User: What shape does this take?
Amino acid sequence: MLKRLGIGLLTAVVGLLAWSAEPLVVIGPWSGAEAEPFEAVLQAFTEKTGIPVDYRVMRAEDLAAVLPAQFGAGLTPGDLIFTAWGWWVKEFAEHMVDVSGEIAGIPFTTDPLIVDGRAVGVPYVTWVKPGFWYRKSFFEAHGLTPPTTWEEFIALLEKIEAIPGIEKAAASGDGVGWPLSDMTEHFIITFGGLNMHLGLIEGTIKWESPEVRAIFENYLIPFLAHASDPIEWTAALDMWWDGKYGIYFMGNWLTGMVEDPNDLGVFTLPGCQAVVGGTDYMFIPKYSKRVDDALALLRYLVSVEGVALRVSKGGKLSMRADVGPEHYPPAEAALAQAVGALSIAPDMDDTIGGDWQLAFWDQLKLLWVKPEALDDVLRALDAAYPKKG
Amino acid sequence: MRRFKARWREWGAALVFLGPGLVLLWLFVIWPALQTLSLSLQDRTGFVGLTNFRHLFSLPAIVNPQRFLRQEPPWGALFHNLVWVFIHLPITVGLGLVLAVVYARVRRWWVGLARGALFLGIVTPMIVGGVIIRYLFEGHSGIIPQLLGTLGLGRPWSSGWMAFPETALLGLILGSIWLWTGFSMILHSAGLSAIDPELFEAAKIDGASTWAEFRYITVPLLRPVTFVVAVMTFLWELKIFDIVYVATMGGPGKASTVLALEMYLATFRSLDPYRGAAIATLITAFSLPLGYWFATRRLRR
Assistant: This one.
């Protein structure tokens, strides 16, 4: 009897130990060099609290495929999950823990996702898509300067293409398609203004309208003559850094992915008054068995300490008004100063989401290699826009 | 009484052997299939009859007859699946047959290697296959565009095939031939080993050429195997998904999309399970008659 009791006790202790050593599962979209700064923050959290964390990579597309079935079964693959798709989090809000109490009083610069009075998605640091990046050393070596007018911009592209070894002036990043949409949004905001950008998001302006078409015809398509075919965006980054291309449009997470961030310069299209900015939202599925630990991690991540640590690693900007540029590395500080005077516009495809987001990416891939398909592309974008009601 | 007992024992045995299988079949195949069918006849408001199907056939992403064979893709997912069948099926089935015969006849050191390389295609996960195809046809590092570039061909042949509407679908189909020909070759090899060698010896004595042996002995005797391979290949092509998902996501501009991908996107991106279920039902409707015919034909034999 005693022997059995002993074995039972031992099993319980071992089980308890195994359970306590089970790490908190965090799922996010960042991998490789882009994930390293975030993993450093998780490491700091573990050192502070003793709660081990297992970081796993899943893109928003993968989460969208996996989570509905998991939620339907009352399960979740992660305790704290990140996605840039705010629209998706809102759609599945009933499956998320309300974290209103954890974020009360925090001076966010980007709003949390609130559904029926419940805070279901919390912004975690921010990014901007400021414009075209270049290597200062490359520009200096070839006597190039950032343009101040559209004509100068086109002249710059031509000058870059005249440099031996250059394939095209600009690299076009690809993947599922978002780098192309980022670039397109930058053209729309620059030449159509912020109101056109917002009108396209809200559906009050049509893609086939003459003013939108004119931006494509007069600016984007002439630019495409100097841009590469779509190349997987991390491969394009390497090729641009190695000097196959002169400029590269990308978000500021790029600063955390290059060998020497101090060699980076960036310019917007001449006349640009706003840049696209956004955030990744974190949420806790209510099916997590470690909600308390997940909340502890969430509290740490949004704390002054957690945010300051993350932004100090580069590639992201603060989403707290009380954590400022003093915490940024030099490249980010310069960027924050450069975009400080500009308005921040919401990311169009992340805001609309659903079918339309995919159509936008897919149609732009087509436009990049077949500019003559412009009218088909614009028609498809209008057709894919979500029907009201 | 004895007859009753024997009959009871027979039924009991049938129940014991078939029961678990039937329960699993009901739980994991028939019940979900019926649920899918039911979902395809509904929308958020309730029963809508065939409305979802009518809507499907009005979508250019599913059928685009105005462009089909008149302009480059997109032609719609349904036509793209048919193009898969039209190109991929004869090549993989025919190539598998020919290679099985060649490998059976040739006794050289490289035969094992070549057979192994082909076999590798069917053990490679399709998702990995999609990645391989993507890089095989990539503009900067892909061997196919590079090769065609050195032959003097211009865009899109010497650029990234997956980026262009003219080449994306063709690239996926050609790239996947390696992934499936091994299946055809193995089944044909198994069929070949079952043919009585005396038939070939007798043909040789009668002075038959190699071609005549192939034409009048190998092909007719392998016909049942070829038939099985063709049916399995057809079904594989109808439900093709992972390769397309990884390599092109159906693009550019829907130029390489297929029915299974549209089903996935409708369900998980548009969050419209009713449309997704309608596409799933459509795929089943296309494959069911062939499957039924195949099954009953085999049963009759």
Q: What stands out?
A: Chain B has one domain: 64-300. Chain B touches chain A at residues 138-140, 156, 159-160, 163-165, 249-255, 264-265, 268-271 (CB under 8 Å). Chain B has 13 helices and two strands.
